[in-house]
């Protein structure tokens, strides 16, 4: 026991220690990847060589925007019989993402959806699980990256494979 002892902490130093960046679900560069791409009409064109990283990022509460979503458009090359769209991310609490595929000629409904709970979402066309029709060579299609549950955020990469 110390009678009359006191502890004084001095935090007045102007030198700020340099630490590593705070671990987070995404980076500013990933949030900005090929933006704006938040609607089917503003989907950014990607090819098999594009992979990201992109991110589903938090929106300001008072923005009235709702959840971030990302749309990417691709063209199916001639003689293609199989298309695979893969979304890869680290599934963590608050970071589950899903993948949907649209035919822009019929934008009202997704033609395929992948809603798993692992680190990968995959749509294979034609495919049975999840169902996806044959994609017509020469036509454009759009895939969408969305939060599995409202408010979820995460960084991701993707791949397109044409066979």
Could you please describe the fold and organization of this structure?
- The protein has 163 residues and is mainly beta.
- It has a single domain (28-162), classed as Jelly Rolls.
- 3% of the residues lie in helices and 33% in strands.
- The chain is built from 1 helix and 11 strands.
- It has one helix at 28-32, and strands at 44-45, 54-56, 70-75, 83-89, 97-102, 112-114, 120-125, 127-128, 131-132, 140-147, 154-162.
- The strands form 3 sheets. Strands 1-3-10-5-6 form a 5-stranded mixed sheet, with no helix packed on it. Strands 2-11-4-7 form a 4-stranded antiparallel sheet. A two-stranded antiparallel ribbon has the order 8-9.
- A hairpin with a 2-residue loop joins strand 8 (127-128) and strand 9 (131-132).
- The radius of gyration is 22 Å and the shape is elongated.
- The termini are far apart.
- The model is unreliable at 17-22 (pLDDT under 50).
